[in-house]
């Protein structure tokens, strides 16, 4: 993909696009052109822990079982929660999954980081909020209302455990809810009645104070233009945030084997299939992160020190003490 950026710089967008026939490659040329053209003034944020350990790509077979994902010295465990219903019953809510869950996580943490407040307003209507996520406000079985409604409720009700190995024989375990409370309101739009809640929707979300303070100190800046281009692929989003977090911290070339990557992006049993899928996803990632110095090889992914996706002068590092003051 680095060659595409060189060609765009030397020859121009129209010339490169004109001789590119493959539809996927044409899309990547357009993505690369837009990435080079952007001022990158739109910045999103995600907690560093979620850059290193990801949610499920698709709906788990057993939605009531905890989700476990490993990445080196990090282990993420997501435990499903419950949702009290209007009729007095309680519904088991599964773990969040897919690209939309990732967009919601980035949105909530970006708004909290930018406003310096754990209280996040999702907007006056569901359709308005969908547009802010970059999604079309569509209903029906293939629309965005139902899956987005579902994912935000899953995120709001689940619990997270992050285990970090700190030495040869020591580890730190942190149990954390991301969201301390939600305010439901009745959405009178013609939308699917998810979870039998009579059209109730989340209007306000309150992040837990401990997670909010940790987010303010450990937020990873992301290019929102890149997120928008990758919004339909959970794998591409995972690869992007992982590389954004890791590449600029490297001080030497590193080889990450495919079987190790499968611990983060897939499952051990399917690491050969994962390698193929990840190579394809990385073509899109490199189109929107042109400075990413990476090279897929037969043994794994070679990572080399790279400039950050968002230059340090484009964002402000905030500390919890400054916020409270």
From TrEMBL:
One Pfam assignment: RepA_C
Highest taxon above the source species: Bacteria
Protein's name according to its UniProt entry: Plasmid replication protein
InterPro entries the UniProt entry points to: RepA_C
Organism: Azospirillum thermophilum
